[in-house]
Amino acid sequence: MTEAAKYQNRIELLQGTLDMLVLQALLREPMHGYAIAQVIRSRSGEVLTVETGSLYPALHRLERQKWVKSEWKLTESKQRAKYYQLTALGKKQLTSDHQRWLQLVRAIGAVMDPEVQQ
Amino acid sequence: MTRWPWERAKENLSEELESHLTIAIGDRVARGEDPAQARAAALRELGNLPLIEDVTRERWGWIWLENLLHDTRYALRQLHRTPAFTVTALLTLAFGIGANLGVFQLLYAVILAELPVPHPEEVVRIHAARSPFDQSWTISYPAYQRLRAATPDIPLMATAYAQDATLELPNRASIEASIAPVSGNYFSGLGIAPAAGRLFVQADERMGQSEWPAVLRYDFARNTFGSAQQAVNQHIILNGRAFIVIGVAHRRFLGDITGRAPDIWLPLSLQSTGAFAFSWDSLGPGHDVSLGKPWYNQPTIFWLSLTARIPPERRAAVLAHWDQVFRNDRELMTEATADPAVKAALLRVKTGVAPLSENGMRKRFATPLTLLMALSASIFLVGCLNLANLQLARLHARAHELSVRIALGASSGRLIRQIVLEDALLVASGSVCAFVLGRAASGILVRWASDRNALFTFDLHPNLPLAAFGVGLMFVSLLSFSILPAVIFIRTGAAQSAGSRAKVAGIAQTAGQRLRSNVLLGMQVSLSLLLSTMSGCFAATLVHWETVDVGMDREHVLNVRPELRQPRYTNHAEMLPGLYTRIQERLQALPGVRSAAVEMCGGIHCGWITALYVHGRNDLTDAQVHGQEDHVGLGFFSTLGIPILRGRDFSSIDTVNTQPVAIISHTYARQLFGDADPIGQFVGYEPAPNDHKFLIVGEVADARVNGAQREAPAVVYMDINQNPAPVNSIRVRAVGDPGQLSDSVRHALYEVDPALPVSEIVPLAIELNGDLGMEKLLARLAGIYASLTLLLVAIGFYGVMSSRTTRRKKEFGVRLALGATRRHIQMLIVGQTARILLAGVLPGAVLSIFAVRIASHLLYGSVSANSLAILAASFVLALAGSIATLIPARRAAFADPLETLRNE
Fold first, then answer.
1. Closest-CA residue in chain B for A70?
2. What per-residue confidence (pLDDT) applies to B1?
3. Does A60 sit within 8 Å of B60, measured CB to CB?
């Protein structure tokens, strides 16, 4: 298996969730790629690290699906960077992804901890 | 500077990742890390940058396009690196596909194309009855009117045949235009739309118009007036009569007879003007026929061919009805014969239909064109085989590169794709050339096939079947010379050869691979032999027809066509014998002229059919009495070189006031009298009591007056001085080349009568050979094909043998070092060629014999000439193959063995 295939597999595994995490990170304000990775890492308590090799393909895919849009802006330290911004379509997608995620968590929880439910 | 959008996007992505890295480093430095360490850590965190770019780019969804572009660029580079192969392949494809397209277009136009009208299957020819003498399916105008009136809802169109007319335009030289007289419902019945103006309506058939309506053919209108629109309302003069162009027919409509496109359509009623020469038949002399008066009310002049549009389901009923209506005319037609069997047979005939496609054109050209198609297909095949072989050799040469690429992880699919893409580029550009070439070729073919005596016009517009055929050929060529070799090569050869030093050099060509290329070469040899043989046979046929004994002195006779059909001659026929004598005497006084004579017929294909009844015999059948008639002047037979077998020639003692005399040809004499002496017998145009008008005074040998390819007909010659009429030709027999006499003859005629126009002066040989369009086409094309395949075979041998000798260089070096002579080495290589040649020639010869058999009715060279053709073709092939092999063989033999071995 080539390295490219490995990357792709990881993307495959993370796909649904990574998209949701990225969209969620962008909910409040536009961000560049590095910031998105940092936000996800810090909010997850350093548990989730998003690899660059997964992040950018995901960002470009989201952009192609018109869930985010991008523009080049200057950062606070006057560095040119590409900022991603959630679109209306992206917001809708995030809502439904979130819903589904909650459903999934609840369902898995019910399976793993039946007593609590009853 | 403009760049491709994907290049911009790619840079954009690099910049984005770059900025990511910069920010990450900045972040780490801000947290207090050492800048150098921060950079290394950030890089580590980032991972494999190009790979990330690759994977990210794939998300864009058009990476395949980029790959394709890459492959294309790579392919172009490869093609550029092997210019010899590229050029050979391009030319082979262009000629191979082009020739096929050209011939196919012709084949399609002649044989397959339907009339460009709605529901062409409904349009049929109506065969009511054959005319008594010409045996053409023509009827009289009154009969046509009756049939048309009987079925008002069925469009029944009539057409007549008329000779070309002289078209005069203001401020321009007059030209000959072919004309087609048609009934008023012709265009509406067929369903033809005008390209400009309007087409005929019933009112256009009105008699006695001061300015007649005319409809032009689209291309003729464009060539004459610039455009269809501009042609409308133009005033033109045809044979001295005024016409106005009322419209131009649809662009694709070229008339209803394949190949014979009229320039101008005219109303039938125009016949009444008498200004145009119509073809006609009648019941013969003695019946009520006044050719000088209008024909529309004469039931005994047969001049109209019928075409109708009948839905298939109504056909039977309509025909039965017409049969009833036509009964009286059919009975009238039987009066032309005294033969009771023929009379009965005529009455038994039922009105029938025939498809429009059933015409002489298709009958004449179907076989030659199919044959040409087969020959074209073979040359295409040879081309593909040749390319396949070159391709295999080329792949072997690239084995090293390909195997390294496979080793580096290139998928074999991608490799095949790249090779095929390379060839697809070749095929695509070759095909573009082929389409251009094919278009030009079909035009040239039509010109070649058109003989002097008949010009063809076909619809050669590109059409869907042609395009489909072309694309089909493209795929076949791509499959055979690219996809199959590539697949075979990749799947069997290259992968295994990777790694081994010896194998990388390509020495090990397996026995299977050698066999494959040998078989391909052998097949080329076979097909090439076939084509060369056919070319030889067609050339022999052409020579046969050009030299066959026609019973006339074909090499020394000149045919001069004077225009005597003018009132100043026709109204004073009694003066004509004097004029003929003056012309003859003046011409015979010219140096280089042996004799001169006048003749009613204007040349070959005169086709003036008559009947002769013998006095005192009433047992003669129609087959016996029918023959051809010609009126000739004094000295005609000696001028043409037709020997007098019995009796005497016409002489000056035969005049208007003496007994009318006739001379008959040998065949006619046999027909009428068997072996008995015809001299002194009386004959007439009609059965008793009018069967003794002419006294037969002579019998002459047969001559092929209807062309070299037709049997000599039975001919009766009458003395033109006893029945003075304008002649259509003056024959001059020269001592040497008749063509050189043209100017002096023209000048002499001017001296005799300055007002006598001469339309054409042409040697008899050219006139006779003018019929040989198809034979010339076959001979020329087969010749071209044969030389092309020969060239291909030579290229094939050269290509294969040189790649083989290069591969065996080391072996030869060792052999030479061990004491083999250079001659040995050469013989080794030439021997291989010889074996392949032999293996190809044998099946090729069998194939050729088979093909010659199939085409035997087109071939008139003798059997020995045909077998000679096979032998000669084999010899030429062997020579070409050997020469092509000798070049690499010499190169191999004269290579320095030390140099070769040192390179190892």
1. B16
2. 46
3. yes
Q: Residue B731's domain spans which residues?
A: 564-756
Q: Across chain A, what does the average pLDDT equal?
A: 81
**Confidence class for position A1, pLDDT limits 50, 70, 90:** very low
Whats the size of chain B, residue-wise?
904
Looking at the complex, report in whole angstroms how far the Cα of residue A60 sits from the nearest Cα belonging to chain B. Answer: 6
Percent of chain B surpassing pLDDT 90: 27
pLDDT tens track for B9-35: 888 888 888 888 888 888 888 888 888
Would the pLDDT of B214 be above 90? Answer: yes
Asked if B834 and B888 sit in the same domain, the reply is yes
CB B634 within 8 A of CB B775: no
Q: Residues B35, B79: one domain?
A: no
Subunit contact B52:A57, Cβ cutoff 8 A: yes
The domain boundary residue, chosen from B360, B395, B410: B360
Q: Are residues B653 and B723 in the same domain?
A: yes
Taking CB atoms and an 8 Å cutoff, what residues of chain B touch A9? none
Distance from CA of B73 to the nearest CA of A (A): 25
**Boundary residue ending a domain (B334, B360, B386):** B360
Lowest-confidence segment of B116-130, B334-348, B826-840 by average pLDDT: B334-348
**B488 burial class (0-12, 13-18, 19+ CB within 10 angstroms)?**
middle
Instruction: Note whether B401 contacts A: Cβ–Cβ < 8 A.
Output: no
| pLDDT tens-place string over residues A94-113 | 999 899 888 888 888 889 88
pLDDT at B447: 83
Residue for token pair 């207090």: B32
* Residue B490, in any domain of the structure: yes
Q: How far is A63 from chain B (nearest CA, A)?
A: 9
Chain A residues in contact with B55 (beta carbon < 8 A): 4, 7-8, 11, 53, 57
Cβ <8 Å between B24 and A64 = no
Look at residues B85, B758, B168, B704 and name the one whose alpha carbon lies nearest to residue B391.
B85
Query: Are B19 and A79 inside 8 Å of each other by CB?
Result: yes
**Single pTM value for the model:** 0.74
Does ipTM come in above 0.85?
no
Strand runs labelled E in B442-599: 557-562, 593-599
Residues B125, B305 contacting (CB under 8 angstroms): yes
CA distances from B711 to B238, B549, B707, B714, B818 (A): 37, 11, 8, 9, 72
Tell me what pLDDT residue B46 has. 80
Q: Mark yes or no for CB contact B51/A7 under 8 Å.
A: yes
Selected for mutation to probe chain A from B19, B21, B46, B51 (highest A CB count within 10 Å) is: B19
For residue range B814-832, list pLDDT tens digits in order. Answer: 888 888 888 888 888 888 8
* pLDDT at residue number B820: 81
Contact between A56 and B22 using a beta-carbon 8 Å cutoff: no
What are the structure tokens assigned to B753, written together?
């009568």
Long-range contacts, A6-13 (Cβ 8 Å, 24+) = A7/A53, A7/A54, A7/A57, A7/B51, A7/B52, A7/B55, A8/B55, A10/A51, A10/A53, A10/A54, A11/A54, A11/A57, A11/A58, A11/B55
Residues 31-90 of chain B whose Cβ lies under 8 A from any Cβ of chain A: 45-48, 51-52, 54-56, 58-61
Whether B346 contacts B333, CB under 8 Å: yes
Facing residue for A64 by CB, picked from B27, B48, B61:
B61
What's the pLDDT score for residue A57? 85
Confidence of residue B510 (pLDDT cuts 50, 70, 90): low
CB contact under 8 A, B22 and A79: yes
Q: Which secondary-structure segment (H or E) carries B632?
A: strand B626-632
B528 and B489 within one domain = no
Domain identity same for B468 and B533: no
Q: Residue B196 falls within a domain, yes or no?
A: yes
Tokens 């002419």 correspond to B694
Q: Are the Cβ atoms of B60 and A57 closer than 8 angstroms?
A: no
Judged against a pLDDT cut of 70, whether residue B764 lies above it is answered with yes
